[in-house]
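User: Reviewer 2 asked us to show a designed sequence for the structure in our supplementary figure. I'm pasting the structure tokens here. Could you produce the per-position amino acids so we can include them in the response letter?
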């Protein structure tokens, strides 16, 4: 049940006041997309379901920490899920359970990658903005987000100096942010 006019910031602020109905609306709005991302990151549905549950509990209990002046509500929610998933992966002693074909396809602009991105929430706009980035900026961002690789790991994998990777990621994220806000 995706609603492009959903007020994430207001809903999180209502959750911070203990409004259970607001949390239910948030759950109905995002649970499916959160699960899809968690499955992509973790590779296993059972672990993804646990991760989404833990992340949503964290959203409810920490809603009072959300500050709309620091960023968008939806991004805040997804960052909680992402950190939970990455912590789970690190706890298993590995960062990747699934293969890297998805990342390689996305980096190479394959039709399957475009379809996957469009299926995600705000996928069309994100796909458009990612498409605006040149591959040297897009690829490290995708490796960091979907695979949880550190800057050092990305630099090693792409055989590129660490400072260059950091600069590309910074510039790419800045360009993505500008594009998504346009």
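Assistant: Here is a per-position design you can include in the supplement:
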């Amino acid at each position: 049940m995706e609603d492009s006019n959903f007020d994430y910031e207001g809903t999180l602020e209502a959750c911070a006041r203990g409004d259970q109905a607001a949390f239910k609306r948030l759950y109905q709005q995002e649970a499916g997309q959160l699960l899809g991302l968690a499955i992509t990151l973790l590779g296993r549905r059972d672990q993804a379901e646990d991760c989404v549950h833990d992340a949503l509990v964290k959203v409810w209990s920490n809603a009072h920490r959300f500050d709309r002046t620091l960023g968008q509500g939806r991004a805040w929610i997804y960052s909680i899920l992402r950190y939970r998933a990455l912590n789970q992966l690190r706890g298993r002693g590995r960062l990747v359970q699934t293969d890297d074909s998805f990342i390689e396809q996305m980096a190479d602009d394959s039709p399957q990658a475009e379809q996957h991105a469009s299926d995600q929430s705000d996928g069309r706009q994100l796909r458009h903005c990612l498409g605006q980035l040149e591959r040297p900026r897009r690829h490290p961002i995708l490796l960091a987000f979907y695979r949880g690789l550190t800057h050092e790991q990305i630099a090693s994998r792409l055989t590129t100096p660490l400072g260059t990777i950091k600069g590309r990621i910074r510039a790419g994220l800045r360009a993505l942010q500008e594009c998504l806000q346009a």
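For the response letter, you might also mention the following. Residues 99-182 form a domain with the Arc Repressor Mutant, subunit A fold (CATH 1.10.10.10). Confidence is low (pLDDT under 50) at residues 94-99, 110-121.
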